[in-house]
Please model this.
Amino acid sequence: MSSKRHSILPPAPSGPKPPVHFSSSITIADSAVLTGTHSIAIHGESVVHPRARLDSLAGRITVGRRCVVHERATLGAVGVSGRVAESGAAVTLADYVTVEVGAAVEAGDTVIGEGTVVGVGAKVGAGAVIGKHCTLTPHTEIAAGEVLPDYTVVYSNGMRRTDKRGMAELKNKGLARQIDVLRRIIPSNPGKFA
Amino acid sequence: MSSRRAPRGEYIETETGNKVARKATLLGTQNIMLGGKTVIQPEVLIRGDLIRTIQASTQSGAASNNTAVSIGRYCFLSRGCCLRPPGRLYKGAFTFMPLRMGDHVFVGPGSVVQAASIGSHVHIGTNVVVGEFAIIKDYVRILDGTVVPPNMVIPSFSIVAGQPARLIGEVPEGGHEAFELRGLYKTVGNNPQPAS
Model:
């Protein structure tokens, strides 16, 4: 007898299975959740941690190259406004974007620029456009439709400043190193979602 | 179905007294050390799979230690909290570092902890974020909604709050008994006792 006990019930249906376009070099954990009806595209060398949630019910989801989506993060959840994508693109992440634990990016033409970090538990409202190399510190909330210029740091309940350290290139390199390690330690199973 | 087995409780109770909820997610269980009498509530997520990929030095013991998360005795991990080892660049390569937690540590619901070390008798409130490589010493109280920035060192007997976290006070004389979690440990599990 096997040591693991399996339920005799059929697995609960977890919503529609979206069409996916995966690059061959991505790492996606088995327990990540992909639901919705529109397509989900994940480009080269991106990492999706276990229990991350990508929901394409409101429109297309595009994840750029070398992005990291941490556990419990949600991309494409329909927010309180109930807004869905007008152009068909619900959430677009450019390259080198990190979405940390429990952060939520709402659907509805939301764009997050290159090198941006969405901190732990942060919320990006529907239709917000975040510039390049921004940092949203933990628990920040970006209102729906807001436009954030490049290199903005949002901290301490909505205070803003501009990041003048010139660290963007280094941060991208660091992220690439992180991805190298994550690819080794997170078992990837892209076939499950195809 | 008839079964002679006792009904399955909400918690798995181990020989060392750990109470682990069946609905908790523990990834990389072989890299998670529980000291005993620790409560892990449902929907808790512990990332034991994020192990150290570079060993500090080869001379410090031949057997490589892969522990990613180590938790002491009488810790209490509330519903929905998340423990994950911090990661950084070390000698030009990225590696995760172990997360160490002492005894009698309370982690509130929805909190995310990425500290390097947490001492003993620490109370972390609801929806707190502890940034990467933060060091929290003994007898520290972190109030609800605090964001502890990465690399912050919180000295013993302090009370911190705010976004980012600031020292707002000290634990009063004799106030350290409030950190005791033995009573709380008894109130959860498959046959919980009322709080005394």
Remarks:
- Residues 11-45+72-186 of chain B form a domain with the UDP N-Acetylglucosamine Acyltransferase; domain 1 fold (CATH 2.160.10.10).
- Chain B touches chain A at residues 25, 27, 45, 47, 49-51, 53, 82, 84, 87, 89, 92-96, 110, 112, 127, 129, 131, 145, 147, 162-164 (CB under 8 Å).
